[in-house]
Specification:
The protein has 227 residues and is α/β, with parallel strands linked by helices. The protein folds into two domains: 1-30; 32-226, Rossmann fold, CATH 3.40.50. The protein contains nine helices and seven strands, in the order αααβαβααβαβαβαββ. It has a seven-stranded mixed sheet, sandwiched between helices. α3 (35-50) runs parallel beside α4 and α8 (163-176) runs parallel beside α9 (192-204). The longest helix is centred in the first third of the chain and has 16 residues, at 35-50. The radius of gyration is 20 Å and the shape is globular.
Length: 227
């Protein structure tokens, strides 16, 4: 069959095209708000196992611990992840500093608040003793100090909206992540101004970054290789 006839047969006219396009859009559309995060966790499971990466899963900005729980379900059986730790203020977005205000960030103080007691109860009940939640503003060194017993990081999830919070989480991660560990930024493309600042932070860090994957619409991950 020549190419013109083959194309005509496949095309089938505009009504068929519109129907097929609509079906394709529906099939590819994200079905759940955690979909990009679950895809990330599923994709790194084999990598963690085959490279024998041991350490902890640390999530900066864990909110209701939904991704933290998903990480436990997906990674706890077949990888060397020992603890699954979530940090959050649990009273919502903290106060912006001068840089945050300069960037004209979208979120307001108090957004994304939830009840710490309920989150802790959920984690304690459902994560088989491997789940940990730490309350506080992790821009504060006294809050980060509570991470010391879990500071060997294999997977770092940075899910913050303020640059000051991202910077604190990033610096702690770079200091403590194992060679070949993974950083996932859930909001890398949420605000292009923050994307630019993140690139600056990464260029200054004394490690090498290998791009791992992109999780639409905002998430991006990197492997961290020590020099």
């Amino acid at each position: 069959m020549n190419k013109k006839l083959e194309h005509k047969k496949v095309f089938g006219g505009y009504p068929k095209f519109k129907k097929e396009l609509n079906e394709l859009v529906v099939s590819l559309e994200q079905k759940h708000y955690l979909e990009r995060k679950v895809k990330f966790l599923l994709e790194i499971r084999g990598y963690l196992k085959t490279n024998k990466l041991f350490g902890n899963y640390i999530e900066f900005g864990s909110y209701r611990s939904e991704m933290q729980y998903a990480a436990f379900k997906i990674l706890s059986q077949s990888t060397g992840i020992e603890h699954f730790v979530g940090l959050d203020t649990y009273i919502g977005e903290p106060t912006k500093n001068r840089m945050d205000n300069k960037l004209n960030l979208f979120d307001a103080e108090g957004d994304f608040g939830c009840q710490f007691d309920k989150v802790k109860e959920f984690v304690d009940k459902n994560m088989n003793g491997k789940g940990v939640v730490i309350q506080g503003d992790f821009r504060d060194k006294s809050v980060l100090k509570k991470l010391d017993k879990y500071k060997q990081i294999a997977v770092s999830v940075i899910d913050c909206n303020l640059l000051s919070s991202i910077e604190s989480a990033f610096n702690y991660t770079i200091k403590n992540i194992v060679d070949g560990g993974i950083i996932y930024f859930d909001d890398f493309f949420y605000n292009i101004k923050i994307s630019n600042e993140l690139n600056k932070l990464m260029k200054k860090a004394n490690v090498n970054f290998i791009e791992h994957s992109f999780y639409p619409p905002f998430g991006k991950s990197y492997l961290v290789i020590r020099k």
